[in-house]
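Hi team,

Filling in the usual template for the complex we talked about on Friday. All components are listed, including any nucleic acid strands or ligand strings, so the model treats them as one assembly.

SUBMITTER: L.P.
PURPOSE: interface mapping
COMPONENTS: two
RESIDUES: 710
SEQUENCES:
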Amino acid sequence: MTVDVAIDRPRAVTPFESEFRTLYDAAGTIAPPPVRSIRVAAFDAFRRLGFPTTKNEDWHFTSVAPIVEHDYLHILTPSGDVRPEQLEPFQFGGDDWHTLVFVNGRYAPELSNVGELPDGVKVLDLRRAWREAPQLVDQLGQITRYDDRAFTALNTAFMNDGAVVHIDRDVEVEKPIHLLFVADAVAAKSMMHPRNLIVIGRHAKATVIESYVSLSDAVYFNNPVTEVAVAEGATLQHYKVQREGMRAFHVGTIETHQARDSHYISFSLATGGSLTRTNIYTTLDGEGSGCTLNGLYMLDGEQHCDHQTLIVHAQPNCFSRELYKGVLDGQSHGVFNGKVYVYPIAQKTDGKQTNNTLLLSSKAQIDAKPQLEIFADDVKCTHGATVGRLDEQALFYMKSRGVSRELARQLLTYAFAADVLETLEQRNVREELERMSLRRFTAQVPVESGTKR
Amino acid sequence: MSLLQIRGLTASVGDKPILRGIDLSLNAGEVHAVMGPNGSGKSTLAQVLAGNPAYEVTGGSVTYKGQDLLEMQPEERAQAGIFLAFQYPVEIPGVSNAYFLRAAYNEVRKARGEAEVDPLEFADLMEERLKIVDMDPAMLSRSVNTGFSGGEKKRNEILQLAVLEPSLGILDETDSGLDIDALRTVADGVNKLRSRDRSFIVVTHYQRLLNYIVPDYVHVLAGGRIVKSGGKELALALEEKGYDWLTEGAHTAEVGA
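RESULT (copied from the run log):
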């Protein structure tokens, strides 16, 4: 159980008032008038809601008190000192991908490389969309809601930059679109509220990767929100790679709306941050649609990492698959809360949820809470959770072949994570995450990529 | 000087003593069979020599190549040339056989101060070693022992032995659960690996295996002690007469002690 430090609501909210005023006055002219009124409404909601406490069911295992302890400056203008070569380790070797880079929450055109886009594909920053193509961001604020979610309300109030991806109907984008959010030392004691919108047209297909990385160990608070609309018959592979600085706070929300026969394939990797929360919500709002929500979190030290997923089966004959795995070392604390909500009309729902955790230390801790709320009577929904430790037999077996304890532990950890990593269709990302999972707990043993040769 | 010298070795699992004083000496190139009824401690002896932490050594000494074996970690023993072929090889889903073998091979080479080999060089070595146990190369891309049949697992153990080239191979009931064809293949593999500077301890319940892997010496274990040692003809006597005539003696000895 998390120790809940009492959060004084007015005191916690007040520091954000002046930052909000500054944004509203300074940057208000950039956002179109409807956005300005959304901001005001959202900030009102935030003021009313305050930060969630552990009495809030959705935050039962995660106290946000450490986030609230600090005051943050909202970075309004482009900042930071990032050289292109510093981004190399975070780009999956995707030199020819469509890459938008954001530094400390603001778009960095000089570091971005959108490349040549197929006809019917738009990849641009939110401020430019507001200025030049407001029709592309019609759906902003329409997919997610903020009236009962403080962090989304906060993001909506402060949204000032982010990425817009718009794919026209029938277009297949071959190369991944990479949205790379970098924080450097300038981000210290500041907050960022990136806001992204991804719209995949009818029968279109694309891969979008969101990365959150840091070049320093500064304390900062990153609170991104991504809205996603997947139209009829469309497919989106959507990966989130969270490698924030080890002292950073990150609360990220992805909310997706799926139309008939659409496919949404999500993967969430989380290895960074001191206290992080990832929300992934999708609504299957058309018959024959399906989603796959997979994820892997690898923690050590005193990291706290919480995943909350919500799959709403709003129509009949939809499927959902979910596999989340966690590897926890040190005194880390993992949380997985997987909700599946089945509407009364959503007959023939086919849902499966699995959460497996590997504890590498006796002081690491996992709270796993599967939550099925089913209001239809002809459905197939299963869930399962396991918690285990490294197999001592297997460790001895490997050591008896001359393999060091370190490497044996590394290989067994990798093996544990292998099946969820195998679900990643994008090869560069899969191989990089495989390397990361091999390296995560033992930096000193070099191992080449992929144990599957 | 002998390769391995065991003196007064005692070991237990939890509070239960299993080995009650083993004395055994083995020279380079020799094959010693260790036989005995169920529960006599023969598998424990094999596990203790490999350093399985599930067993606690409570007394005695083991000297291997002049070093105190009991002070060494399991991986150090393996790197120094001890190999245990498991009675029940462990399945490791998610780690390919080829990768595991190469990792082990390189760790052993590293410990010996030799250069590590890359996947291509290793593939050449594997091609040759696979022939020793007549194994399908496709087995290399599968996860270690995962979904292998009993015979495939044992063959895989001998393949590992062939790759790691130990000075002392310990076969822990490698014949258990094998039909006669699989037994022959595995035994042939072991025979191909016999040499003047490689010794074996063959732990078995049945004399049958020793028709194929002919030992220089046979020891009979009962009640955690070696109750009789002899040449290969001792195994034949056991086949004929069973263990009772020896184990009865063991009980008496125990009472006497």
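MY TAKE: Residues 443-453 of chain A have pLDDT under 50 and may be disordered. The first strand of chain A starts at residue 73 and ends at 74.

Thanks, L.
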